[in-house]
Each structure stands twice: as C-alpha cells, then as structure tokens.
Amino acid sequence: MEVNLQLCNLMKFTTLVLGASANPDRYSYLAIHSLVSRNHQVIAVGNSEGEVKGVQIKRAIPHIEDLDTLTLFINPSNQKSYYDRIIQQKPKRIIFNPGAENEELEILAMENGIEFINACTILMLTTGNY
To answer: What is the CATH number of the domain that holds 25?
Structure first.
C-alpha cells in the first residue's frame, strides 16, 4: 500500500497540551513549539494565561471537536480535578510525559476506549513517532 506523503504532511491533528507554560524552561513550552512547527493545531491549558508561539494558554479546557491527542505535563495529584473533563473530550490518545504517569487515569482511559502511552511528546515528535 502506497501512502501519499504530501497528503500526510498536510493533515493537521489537534493536540491539547495540559500543563502548558509560557516559561521557556518548561517541557510543555518546548512541546508546543515542536507541535506548532510541525503544523499541528495546538490548544494549551495551564495554571496561568500566556502565549507560546502564537498559541494562547487558557485556564480551562474548552470543548474540542475531534481531539486527536491530549499530552499531559502535570503530576498525577494535580490531574484528578481534570479526570471528568479529559474523559468527556474523548481524545484518541493520551500521552503521559515523564512525571505525569498515572495508573488511575490510565485505567479510566482504557475503560473509555482511549489509547494511552507513557512517552515523551518532544522525543516522539523529534523521531517521527508522534
């Protein structure tokens, strides 16, 4: 089966970055840069409003149609308040970045048919495995 690479490169996937930060020293900041550079549509949610590479950081998760990926940059104890909203969004997958791994949320994801992976978003983007 031959894949049209030009078509694949034109496809835009929506990614929600939960735990977004406008601090250039944070991994979520670097992930947003990498996602935008690769033409992904990015929605960023964090504790403080701000902007990263043209993406406004919101303080609450908006309703998102056809959410491809939710990538987590917050520790498990801070994820609990987001559980219901995450499941309601029905992302196709959740990426638990290092330090965000959470067995409880993994079980919820599995029960709701959401794929999950413990990985580094930035490394996945860099190696072409996103």
So the answer is: 3.40.50.720
